[in-house]
Amino acid sequence: MEIIHHLLIGFITSFLGTLFPSMLNMTSVKISIKETQKKAIYFSAGVSVIVIIQAYIAVSFSKILLDNPRYLIVLQHAGIIAFIGLSVFFFSNARKQKKKQLNNNSIKGRGFISGILLSSLNMFAIPFYFGVTSFLVMMHWYKFTLINNIFFVLGSALGTFSILLLYAYLAKKIENKIEHLANQLDLVLGIITGLIVIINVIDVLL
User: Fold this and answer.
1) Cβ atoms within 10 A of the Cβ of 124, count?
2) Which of 143, 182, 186, 202 is the most buried (most CB within 10 A)?
3) Separation of alpha carbons 133 and 201, rounded Å
């Protein structure tokens, strides 16, 4: 029962943490609308693989991170740099407005690898899972054991995978109603990543 509890809290916290529009779920929307839902599934799988690694690092090294908060600051700085690059990339794509032909033979590879690459650049995931586990421990809802950690991490990956698929599925269902937004998704992603940079820069300066 304890492992199911940790699986569920991993799922719930990850699902809620990815619920609001972000770089990853809006990219899932973009792939679903402009390419295929199948590729969006592979993209979501790629993201979730990296979430397993990020969540496990946060959980496994939570005590070290608590004793050495400077490591979190380093991750935050790295995240700011990565998101500046992503913001420039998305704004550049929005300006070009070029349509790319889909190569069906490479749907799986490109979608999965894209998910891995974008999720790897999300340096804020580790501080997020660190904060979540710290809160859960404080509330006595989390018990550090190897098996509990594994199930929490698996739950986190499933939660992320589920919300990304939900975004992709809903986007495809209302594609006609959000056609204008679909054509401006690179601009939307550029704005989102830009706001993340601004928020974190302010946090660092304060």
Assistant:
1) 21
2) 186
3) 24
Residue that wins the pLDDT comparison between 102 and 120: 120
CA-based R_g, the chain, Å: 18
Question: CA–CA separation, 165 vs 32, rounded Å?
Answer: 9
Q: How far lies 119's CA from each of 32, 70, 104, 140, in Å?
A: 17, 22, 23, 30
pTM recorded for the entire structure:
0.72
pLDDT of 173 > 50? The answer is yes
Query: Each residue of 14-42: pLDDT tens digit?
Result: 998 888 777 788 888 888 888 888 899 99
Instruction: Output the CA–CA distances (angstroms, integers) from residue 90 to 55, 95, 157, in the order listed.
Output: 26, 9, 26
| Amino acid letter for position 20 | F
Instruction: Give the integer Cα–Cα distance in Å for 100 and 142.
Output: 46
Which two three-digit tokens encode residue 6? 């940790």
**CB contact at 8 A, 117 and 27:** no
> CA angle, 13 as apex, 12 and 16 as ends, to 5°?
80
